[in-house]
Amino acid sequence: MEGIEIVVPLDVPREERERFLDNSRALTGGKGRVMLFAGDQKVEHLNDDFHGEGIAPDDGDPEHLFRIASRGRIGAFATQLGLIARYAMDYPDVPYVVKLNSKTNLVKLNQAEPLSRQWVAVDQVARLRDANNIRVLGVGYTVYLGSEHEAIMLGEAAQIVHRAHGFGLPVILWMYPRGRAVADERDPHTIAGAAGVAACLGSDFAKVNYPSGPDAQERFREAIRAAGRTGVICSGGGRMEVSPFLERLHEQIAAGALGSATGRNIHQRPLDQAVRFCNAVYAVTVEGASVQDAMERYWEGPGT
Fold first, then answer.
1. 14-40: per-residue pLDDT in tens?
2. pLDDT tens column, 229-260
């Protein structure tokens, strides 16, 4: 599958253009498509995703995430700066995307509208990167469109995009319609609107939920068009068996998605299975492999 041209936005300074291109190529395997291993759920879902029936015992230890990221084929491992600061000295070769905001799932919508504020500044991320020679390839941030607090998050997101580009860092915005004003988070038209907002914020990629329904693939193309030069990547969602997950992922890529973000479906498995699953997801997402080819790689093992 041919690569997709990387767009260098005009807010990337001339002296940072080469670094931005290098980071973008590394993030996308030189193909323009992102395979993101999402590990930010330690905050978002507390320990619900890391302990319980059907979850590998190793998943209770945060280092399980880093072991997977160091052995599997990924574009980048997305997690909070604090975890990176505590583990990256042992995993310096892992490519990272630093998630700049997070919130827990304890406060429900019937209590308060969703609000997730920025934890650390892009400058602090760049300092950690430069002082320790860590492979930080980009930053990420969540915006809850439809929340009564959306103006706060939109303002922070806009500043993050501009500042990150100043340091040669691509940006992924998690764009989730959520709040009492949102009737259906999975409505394809609303998802397309969220992708369009990410484009207006200048983001390089927008992470969205894939629409539901039998015509999801065709309706998802509305989001691809709305995003323009901003690449749309799909969240992985809840736990699925390997083959159905890869079939859905293949459908998303065929519809025009420029990547995937997979968390629970990877890290809830034992290390060997998690690494093999990473490799299969990478094959479909970045290399354009068929589901059959990806399944063969999954069963062949990490060394292939």
1. 999 999 999 999 999 999 999 999 999
2. 999 999 988 889 999 999 999 999 999 999 99
Active-site residue identified among 176, 210, 282, 298: 176
Considering 207, 210, 282, 298, which one is annotated as catalytic?
207
Task: State the pairing for strand pair 34-38/205-208.
Answer: unpaired
Q: What is the residue extent of each domain of the chain? A: 14-300
Q: Which two tokens stand for residue 17?
A: 């253009």
CB 205 within 8 A of CB 258: yes
176 is catalytic: yes
Lookup: tokens for 179: 């709040």
Looking at residue 253, its amino acid is I
- Cα–Cα distance measured from residue 118 to residue 141, given in angstroms and rounded to the nearest whole number: 8
> What is the DSSP track for the chain?
----PPP--TTS-GGGHHHHHHHHHHHHTTTT-EEEEE-THHHHTTTTTTSSTTS-GGGGSTHHHHHHHHHS--SEEEEEHHHHHHHTTT-TTS-EEEE-B---S-S-TTT------B-S-HHHHHHHHHHHT--EEEEEEEEEETSTTHHHHHHHHHHHHHHHHHTT--EEEEEEE-STT-S-TT-HHHHHHHHHHHHHTT-SEEEEPPPPSTTHHHHHHHHHHHHTTSEEEEE--S---HHHHHHHHHHHHHTT--EEEESHHHHTS-HHHHHHHHHHHHHHHTT---HHHHHHHHHH-TT-
Phi and psi angles of residue 34, each rounded to the nearest 5 degrees, phi first = -100, 130
pTM of the model: 0.96
What are φ and ψ of residue 159, in 5° steps?
-70, -40
- In the block, residue with structure tokens 């302990």: 51
Q: Is 207 a catalytic site residue?
A: yes
Q: What CATH architecture is 14-300?
A: Alpha-Beta Barrel (3.20)
